[in-house]
TrEMBL record:
UniProt entry keywords in alphabetical sequence: Amino-acid biosynthesis, Cytoplasm, Diaminopimelate biosynthesis, Lyase, Lysine biosynthesis, Schiff base
PANTHER family: 4-HYDROXY-2-OXOGLUTARATE ALDOLASE, MITOCHONDRIAL, DIHYDRODIPICOLINATE SYNTHASE
Protein name as catalogued: 4-hydroxy-tetrahydrodipicolinate synthase
Name of the encoding gene: dapA
Subunit note: Homotetramer; dimer of dimers.
GO CC terms of this entry: cytosol
A molecular function (GO) term: 4-hydroxy-tetrahydrodipicolinate synthase activity
Annotated pathway: Amino-acid biosynthesis; L-lysine biosynthesis via DAP pathway; (S)-tetrahydrodipicolinate from L-aspartate: step 3/4
One GO term (biological process): diaminopimelate biosynthetic process
Record-listed pyruvate binding positions: 49, 208
Length: 293
């Protein structure tokens, strides 16, 4: 496994929409190039931030194709592919074409609230049929259940196919337990922008970020400073980002980051229901933050 390709800064890419709610594929091309031209290490496609739950199968396929074609193998691509229906996920894995992708990011089953044994069996089943490396995704605030460190350690030790976890519980103690107890080459990746730097300094592999989408060069620099143990420079950037991170998540994701992209003239701020655009007040606050940064 080439785990090192997922060290550093990955971004959870949005799906840009036009004002009529159709997918803006030209904007998607701009966004991919913007990330790559500004030092992002890899891109996550069709994750939560992409509003993938609101996309049709046809839209998902075209989004994937567009990103693969624009990327031209310049950075690794990770495909978001998860479900709370294990059998359906296995069928999807078997029918999906992974050309151009280097790994999958698979969220823990949501809504069902499985036990730890259920979570283990879900990912064990996935590992047995998926040819690509698998990054687990733990986000209790969305799924309704937490993948306990002991479950992650069990999966990491039993399946070489499972190479890491995007840890978004917002719990630094849990993150450090994962870093301490998983195999040395297992990637513990921050899924929480606010505690990315502490996790990196504790031994984490980097981040899959929302904030970094709008500030790829600066956020990547912070992560790289952290990985290289240049602590003072890393924290200088971290403290500059803190208020902005609070703002972009203030009214939900991806409404905030899409407001930032609108300010950068890269994409519209449009989201699909049941999400709504950031309020005028929040858009103004984000614009002020970006001008100051």
């Amino acid at each position: 496994m080439h785990n090192s390709k997922f060290t550093g800064t990955g971004v959870a890419l949005i799906t840009p929409f036009k004002s009529d709610l159709s997918v803006d594929y030209k904007a998607l091309e701009r966004l991919v190039n913007f990330q790559i031209d500004n030092d992002i290490d890899y891109i996550v496609v069709l994750g939560t931030t992409a509003e993938s739950a609101t996309l049709s199968d046809e839209e998902k396929e075209r989004v994937k194709q567009t990103i693969v074609e624009v990327n031209q193998n310049r950075v690794p691509l990770v495909l978001g592919l998860g479900s709370n229906n294990t059998q359906q996920l296995l069928a999807d894995i078997k029918s999906t074409k992974f050309d151009g992708f280097d790994a999958i990011l698979s969220v823990s089953p949501f809504y069902n609230k499985p036990t730890q044994e259920g979570i283990y069996q879900h990912f064990a089943s996935l590992a047995k049929v998926c040819d690509l490396p698998i990054i687990l995704y733990n986000v209790p605030g969305r799924t309704g259940s937490n993948i306990q460190p002991a479950t992650v350690v069990r999966l990491a030790n039993e399946f070489n196919q499972i190479i890491g976890i995007k840890e978004a519980a917002g719990d630094l103690e849990q993150a450090m337990t994962l870093i301490r107890d998983t195999p040395e080459d297992f990637l513990v990746i921050s899924g929480d922008d606010m505690i990315t730097l502490p996790m990196v300094l504790a031994g984490g592999a980097g981040v899959i970020s929302v904030m970094a989408e709008a500030f790829p060069k600066e956020f990547s620099a912070m992560v790289n400073y952290g990985l290289n143990r240049d602590v003072n420079k890393a924290f200088e950037l971290h403290y500059q980002f803190m208020h902005g991170i609070q703002l972009i998540f203030k009214e939900g994701n991806p409404a905030g980051i899409k407001a930032a992209f609108k300010h950068l003239d890269l994409a519209e701020a449009t989201v699909r229901l049941p999400l709504v655009e950031a309020s005028k007040q929040l858009k103004a606050e984000i614009k002020t933050f970006m001008a100051g940064l």
